[in-house]
Specification:
11 helices; Spore Coat Polysaccharide Biosynthesis Protein SpsA, Chain A; 313 residues; elongated; 14% strand; alpha/beta
Length: 313
């Protein structure tokens, strides 16, 4: 199996027949074998009934149905686990990505890259509500991760399978896959791809996802820079807080012992104690919590999704 196309969908019943037809037109022209894995992420419409019909008509189309809406990262993880291809291509199921761009991604992989990310040009989304926040987010993600891409949010991407085997997905981290791949030594690039206006259904993305994305971005930065040496960041923060608190405490002690200034009812005394102890404790709890969660999932191989039923191999 040369190529696996993974498509996470949620309430995309109307788009699926055309999507599969367009994928079949592209994949049928490729010399190597291929498969299409559509992951139904807890749809509440007739999405899986449509997938059942499409699978019966075309065995190349495989379907996975999750028990509930686990989110795009979990849906992609389910598709990656089921994929048999040496190359895995991801794309959205809303027809805004064009399957005709897949050969261009594969050609770029043949140049020696491990990850090829799509860059939607021109982008067919409202400027103020979608494109401007995306521009700012792409700039911020590129600066923080050190992996410069114009369009982290484009779902159309191609990965070598061996890269994905070393990347774990949690939260909203699917959008950071190129950066996570770079962290494990992958060569990452991007190519311009087409972008079509949404014709059916409604977008699942909005500004409400911003806080979750920012928190996951902080986690990605920590993983990429300090995962094996966390003391360099948390120790530095703790040292700054401790030194500030100790300096303040010494100044207060000098006032009390030398200048005989009473310290009773002075909140600054509590501030000195808080700087030394409480800040360090909260940072330690956050670090330990993050490491416990990852140890739980990765050491025991606990899944982040549950499959209800599967069609095809």
């Amino acid at each position: 199996m040369r190529l696996s196309v993974v498509v996470p969908v949620h309430n995309e019943e109307a788009s699926l027949p055309e999507l599969v037809a367009r994928l079949e037109a592209v994949l049928g022209g490729l010399a190597a074998g291929s498969e299409v894995i559509v992951v139904d992420d807890g749809s509440t419409d007739g999405t899986f009934a449509m997938l059942r019909r499409l699978h019966a008509e075309n065995p190349r189309v495989l379907a996975i149905r999750l028990r509930t809406n686990f989110g795009q990262s979990a849906a992609l993880a389910a598709g990656f686990d089921a994929a048999k291809g040496e190359v895995v291509v991801t794309m959205d199921g809303d027809l805004q990505n064009d399957p005709a761009d897949i050969p261009a991604l594969l050609a770029k992989l043949e140049e020696g890259y491990d990850v090829v990310s799509g860059w939607r040009r021109p982008r067919r989304d409202p400027f103020w509500r979608r494109r401007l926040p995306s521009i700012l987010a792409n700039w911020l993600i590129s600066r923080i991760t050190g992996v410069t891409l114009h369009d982290y949010g484009c779902a159309l991407k191609a990965y070598r399978r061996e890269v994905l085997e070393h990347v774990e997905l949690y939260g909203e981290m699917h959008r950071f896959l190129p950066a996570l791949a770079k962290w494990v030594g992958a060569a990452v690039t991007e190519v311009p791809v087409r972008h079509h206006p949404r014709r059916q259904g409604r977008s699942k993305y909005g500004l409400g996802r911003t806080p979750r994305v920012l928190l996951d971005l902080l986690t990605v930065k920590f993983m990429m820079s300090y995962w094996t040496r966390p003391i360099q960041i948390f120790g530095l923060i703790g040292l700054v807080l401790a030194v500030a608190g100790l300096g303040l405490a010494l100044a207060l002690a000098y006032e009390r012992l030398v200048l005989e200034v009473p310290l009773a009812n002075r909140p600054i005394v509590l501030l000195a104690v808080l700087l030394i102890f409480i800040g360090i404790q909260f940072i330690s709890i956050g670090l330990l919590g993050e490491m416990v969660v990852r140890t739980y999932h990765e050491s025991q191989r606990k899944p982040i999704y549950i499959v209800r039923e599967r069609l095809g191999a």
